[in-house]
Design a protein that fits this description.
By secondary structure, the protein is mainly α. The protein contains 7 helices and no strands. Helices cover 89% and strands 0% of the residues.
Length: 226
């Protein structure tokens, strides 16, 4: 009897040990999973913060571009010295290209595409100048040529952005660029007509459009994961 009781106690002890071991393993697994979730959360938050900061920086750069380009073209139309605004646009362009390079995760495309993007960006500023000079001469044909060239620049811009940041559709970037260009030309038209109220309203629109432009070029982080 004592022997049977001893065997029973041993079996019971083994069963209890197995149960406790399983409980410990389950608890350890749950704690590890929770730790992983807790560790992942700050990283996700950090990525979101970086995404929002990049967009805010781009918004600022595009706003400065819109304002400076408008000032530059008005000075050009009024035959004033444009040295300062030219330098400001050059510095702004450098900041724009640097930020777009940082946004891109495609290092194989970055060098070639950002060079192309810079050429396009500088080219669209030159077309603004060509349009303004045609406006000064009241040359409708050259104005239309500058508009057409700006549309081609916008298409090239969309393709370059898409190559640099594949999750940004080319047509979206092209549309944002066209909107920006049309507002800029409308501002210089209003300036030539000495329509101050219209010029101010359009300048406000151009500044606000920069936010949408930035959002187009920097989509939400979850949309931009690859």
């Amino acid at each position: 009897m004592n022997r049977l009781l001893l065997i029973g106690l041993i079996i019971a002890t083994v069963i209890i040990g197995i149960i406790l071991l399983n409980d410990t393993r389950n608890q350890t697994t749950q704690e590890a999973q929770q730790l992983g979730n807790d560790s992942a959360q700050p990283e996700t938050q950090s990525n979101t913060d970086v995404n929002l900061q990049q967009r805010a920086n781009l918004n600022k750069i595009l706003q400065e571009h819109a304002i400076t380009a408008s000032m530059h073209l008005q000075n050009l139309y009024d035959e004033k010295d444009t040295t300062e605004t030219e330098n400001m646009l050059g510095q702004n362009t450098k900041q724009f290209i640097e930020l777009m390079t940082n946004i891109s995760n495609n290092s194989n495309q970055s060098t070639q595409t950002t060079t192309q993007l810079e050429t396009i960006w500088r080219g669209h500023i030159q077309e603004y100048e060509a349009y303004t000079q045609a406006l000064m001469q009241n040359n409708t044909e050259q104005k239309e040529e500058a508009r057409n060239n700006l549309q081609m620049h916008a298409e090239d811009f969309g393709n370059a952005v898409n190559a640099l940041i594949p999750n940004v559709p080319a047509e979206n970037a092209t549309g944002a660029m066209n909107e920006h260009a049309n507002l800029t030309l409308s501002i210089i038209d209003a300036h030539a007509e000495e329509n101050t109220a219209e010029k101010m309203a359009l300048s406000t629109q151009a500044s606000a459009q920069a936010a949408g432009f930035a959002e187009t070029l920097i989509p939400n982080r979850q949309e931009n994961n690859r």
